[in-house]
Amino acid sequence: MKKTVGVIGGGQLARMMIVPALELGLEIKVFAESADASASMAATQIGDYTKIEEIRQFSQGVDVITFDHEHVPLEVLEQLEAAGVAVRPASSALRFAQNKIEMRKILGELGLPIPDWAEANTVEDIDRFLLKHQGIAIAKTPTGGYDGKGVRVIRSAEEISDWLQLGAVLLEQKVNFVRELASLCARRPSGDMRTWPVVETVQKDGVCSEVISPAKDLSEQSLHLASEIALKVAEGIGVTGMLAVELFETEAGELLINELAMRPHNSGHFSIEGSKTSQFEQHLRAVLDLPLGSTEPNAPYSVMINLLGVDSENDLVSRYPAALAAHPSAKFHTYGKSARAGRKMGHVTVVGSDLVKVVAEARAAAAVCLKA
Amino acid sequence: MKKTVGVIGGGQLARMMIVPALELGLEIKVFAESADASASMAATQIGDYTKIEEIRQFSQGVDVITFDHEHVPLEVLEQLEAAGVAVRPASSALRFAQNKIEMRKILGELGLPIPDWAEANTVEDIDRFLLKHQGIAIAKTPTGGYDGKGVRVIRSAEEISDWLQLGAVLLEQKVNFVRELASLCARRPSGDMRTWPVVETVQKDGVCSEVISPAKDLSEQSLHLASEIALKVAEGIGVTGMLAVELFETEAGELLINELAMRPHNSGHFSIEGSKTSQFEQHLRAVLDLPLGSTEPNAPYSVMINLLGVDSENDLVSRYPAALAAHPSAKFHTYGKSARAGRKMGHVTVVGSDLVKVVAEARAAAAVCLKA
Fold first, then answer.
1. With an 8 Å Cβ cutoff, is A35 touching chain B?
2. Architecture of domain A4-87
């Protein structure tokens, strides 16, 4: 019996799920925001994912509902679940990805390593936290932030007075990290899990810019710890499908959890070429409770670079002839989105055995695409 | 500017072209035979590819027309070309793939190595050819044959009296080959070409069953010769897109051309995982005259095994849980076709550095899928 997966959200993550769906012979249906969404090829419904009637209609005749993003209101998901629809990850897990304060609470309860944090509802709460942390803190809106949006480095309460008017704010200790890592895993409803070797991520203006798999010169102990953290989060929260755990590595070699995502994640795009099983294939296998694939690397190193829009003219595709000609071994991925400065338009991945060469090739390939 | 490729035919080759189209940000439109065709996800028109009005309508708004199969009537293609549509491969090349007698003529003119052959229109023609070749020959219908259909080993004219009534028959010397090989290349309209290392193909009942890339223990000279043959055919005939040249290797180490295909070919499916650029991506690049990708292998060996239908019950997908569980490193590909004994339902590919292990793993993975 052919299985059908319904994906809410028509962005690039849904687009990249189409490939393993075709390969594995799974039916994929996408609930997209607009007819020109990135995953429009598999779109069977266009609508508003906050409307329970529309989502309920979409869920008819699919075996499982999963997501391109984490923004579907919890009430919508809970009503689907009450109606007997398999939602993966479930609302009971996804609520932690939707609220950064709830996430810190559960991670603390699970005994996992996180930066010191507090919920601030008043100016006094903020002042108290700043006093404790040398007068500096990271403030985050509990909901709705992504790619650097909803995050500020603050030294006084005034800097987030606008946010405070709207409700609670998350305050976090500013961690002096030496680099950022990400630990990916997938978990089936039956509990089986697989991890990938931890990757190194480079952010630029709060947006993921470059990913190196595996992270360079990481101790065996840290490699193991990073995987352990991902597995404990997945199990502790009951995640089904892909989980990405963004981590800070401190000078002392400590690993601290920064953020979580319960879906394929930008830090895992390298896996399309770099791993026996990509995160997109693994996500589909996991949410359908199919056996998970090997996460063994296809090459010693993989480097992925995001292609961000330069301006509204640079639609990537017009850069192809030059990029393909100059870099015949680089793998280009486009998301079919209209161009806009700073928008994630695509990515390029290079794999190989010499990290210096792989990084240089990936950066050169990206540079050709990004020339204004 | 986004390019649009129109594919006539909705089979598994078109289905596997969808993946690189998504990755490279190309628009792909498929003219399918039926709504449940293998490539139905990209189907924009359902119809009869022998009808010029339907094909003409389909060709509106695509940058180039290419094919999932070689059965579109030449008149249809010539009319499209006369109307200014870019057809790749062009009718001037495709006519050799559509008629096995025309193919032998051009290959002979190009001075390429082929088995001795003759066009037979009478019983006398057949008797003469049999006399010359120790009383045995291969007879082929000039048009319409595939996967062993339209091919007979004959020892007398009576054995093909039914064919002779319909027109000319191709007779070929029965080659005592030690194995079969296939040499793949891609060619752009601008003339740029890329080859892959020659593969070894195993046929069972006239259908491709197993492909090993690269062919085992082939001399440098034969490797080079096989590529040279493919390049000379592509150039001599003016092929654009993928070309597969099926070859016989004789005991003396000679290479003789058996058949040609001017499209992605079963012998190239290994390249999805086994090569930096798959034959499907290369085909799209070639027909759109984009720079060709690297054909460097991703691993020392790749083995592909076809998954043929056992009976109408075995739809492959129902075998997945067992196959995925037992073989987490094997890559399964399904074509979304209804099950039928002997039908190409999908394939499985394993890559690695130890050929014995790779072959064993691929065969074991296929066996799980094919258990009745």
1. no
2. 3-Layer(aba) Sandwich (3.40)
> For residue A15, which residues of chain B lie inside 8 Å, CB to CB?
22
Partner-chain residue, chosen from A22, A291, A335, that has the shortest CB–CB distance to B325: A291
The DSSP string of B238-307 is T--EEEEEEEEEETTS-EEEEEEESS--GGGTTHHHHBSS-HHHHHHHHHTTPPPPP--BSSSEEEEEEE
Report the alpha-carbon distance of residue B282 to residue B260 in Å, rounded. 17
Q: At B355, is the secondary structure helix, strand, or coil?
A: helix
Structural domain spans, chain A: 4-87, 116-172, 177-370
B335 touches chain A (CB under 8 A): yes
Q: B177-370 has which fold?
A: D-amino Acid Aminotransferase; Chain A, domain 1 (3.30.470)
Percent of residues, chain B, with pLDDT higher than 90: 88
The amino acid at A104:
R
Answer whether B353 touches A (CB < 8 Å). no
C-alpha closest to that of B235 among B113, B106, B104, B68:
B106
Q: How many CB pairs under 8 A join A and B?
A: 110
B2, B5, B24, best to mutate vs chain A, most A CBs in 10 Å? B24
pLDDT tens for each residue of chain A, 372 residues long: 689 999 999 999 999 999 999 999 999 999 999 999 999 999 999 999 999 999 999 999 899 999 999 999 999 999 999 999 999 999 999 999 999 999 999 999 999 999 999 999 999 999 999 999 999 999 999 987 666 678 999 999 999 999 999 999 999 999 999 999 999 999 999 999 999 999 999 988 878 899 999 999 999 999 999 999 999 999 999 999 999 999 999 998 899 999 999 999 999 999 999 999 999 999 999 999 999 999 999 999 999 999 988 777 666 777 788 999 999 999 999 999 988 888 899 999 999 999 999 999 999 999 998 775
Model pLDDT for residues B106-165, shown as the tens digit of each residue: 999 999 999 999 999 999 999 999 999 999 999 999 987 666 678 999 999 999 999 999
Q: What residues does A201 pair with on adjacent strands?
A: A180, A211
Residue B223 forms contact with A (CB below 8 Å): no
pLDDT at A340: 86
**CA B26/CA A347 separation, integer angstroms:** 15
Contact A334 B293 (CB under 8 A): no
Give the CATH class of B116-172: alpha beta
Cβ–Cβ below 8 Å for B285 and A324:
yes
